[in-house]
Design a protein that fits this description.
Elements (H helix, E strand, L loop, with lengths): L1 E12 L5 H6 L1 E11 L2 H6 L8 H13 L6 H13 L6 E7 L13 E7 L2
Antiparallel strand pairs: 1-2, 2-3, 3-4
Helix pairs in contact: 3-4
């Protein structure tokens, strides 16, 4: 399976279990790896035979900016399902970063990574 990756998609969301997270919001960063067969697109040089990663990026940002959820796991699942709505995408790995998570000790990042497929 071929891979199309998008790294570092940034959007402001209001996800989290604490009232402050819901009210103030914070930046979430999303990395995606889409699994699909790109041979037909490459052979014909045809965008219609692959996934339009610009459209995927916009849809993912809309999910992050959309309805709040408590868990990063739920957000990752919503993003994965959005990606799988594209007919050519057979598999997706989603990594959601929450670099401003409300943790009381020094840290660099919090991530949740999931892989989903049509199978």
């Amino acid at each position: 399976m071929d891979r199309v990756a998008l790294r570092g998609l940034k959007a402001r969301g209001h996800h989290g279990v604490f009232a402050r997270e819901r009210e103030e919001g914070q930046t979430f960063i999303v990395d995606l790896t889409l699994g699909l067969d790109t041979r037909a697109a490459a052979a014909d040089d045809d965008l219609a035979k692959t996934v339009h990663y610009g459209v995927v990026a916009e849809e993912v940002v809309a999910v992050v900016e959309g309805d709040p959820v408590d868990l990063v796991e739920t957000l990752a699942e919503r993003i994965a399902q959005t990606c799988l709505k594209h007919d050519r995408v057979q598999e997706v790995e989603v990594c959601v970063h929450k670099p401003d998570a409300p943790i009381t000790v020094p840290f660099d990042d919090v991530t949740v990574t999931i892989t989903r497929s049509r199978a």
